[in-house]
Amino acid sequence: MSTAVRLHRDLPAPPEKVYRAWLDPDLLRRWLAPGGLEVARAEVEPRIGGRYRIWHTDAGADVGGFDCELVDLEQDRRIVWRWGFVGPQRAAGPTFDSLLTVTLDGKPDGGTALTLVHERLDDLAAAMPQVADGVAPGWTSVLDKLAEVAA
């Protein structure tokens, strides 16, 4: 498994709408769940150092999610997180920290060229290889949903 995931996606929405979709809890609930999961709850403090938390459920059962910190924000252009994968026990269990960077570039047609780089996945890969192997497919699936939500 590569310990970094790099994806590029052209989205049919302007950068400001895509940026907002990453930071608005109501919008996040609509797209930031890979596979058959659902977002039961999303909390965002949209500032550097702010918390960014996602609770996933599968058939109504808590399966964990993400417990993150916003490291850098450049309005409508770039977001960087300390991205933590957590299980259903959240803070009581291990958190596998990584670094996620999303860059948004406006396109002449009014859309957005999105680049996602998720790196520092070594600890996750060592502890939970099956979860780490799902990072790239998970991002691919949620970016498809993001394209619909942001449009």
Query: What composes the largest sheet?
Result: 7 strands, antiparallel
Helix and strand content put the structural class at alpha+beta
Beta percentage is 35-45%
Please give the alpha-carbon distance between the first and last residues.
33 Å
Number of strands: 7
Largest sheet strand order: 1-7-6-5-4-3-2
Spatial extent as radius of gyration: 15 Å
Overall pLDDT metric: 90
Total number of helices: 5
CA-based shape: globular
In terms of per-residue confidence, which ranges show pLDDT below 50 for 5 or more consecutive residues? none
- The percentage helix is 25-40%
User: What is the string of helix and strand elements?
Assistant: EHHEEEEEEHHH
Write the layout of secondary structure elements.
Layout: E1 5-11, H1 15-23, H2 25-31, E2 38-44, E3 51-58, E4 61-74, E5 78-86, E6 95-106, E7 112-119, H3 122-127, H4 129-133, H5 135-150
Antiparallel strand pairs: 1-7, 2-3, 3-4, 4-5, 5-6, 6-7
Helix pairs in contact: 1-5
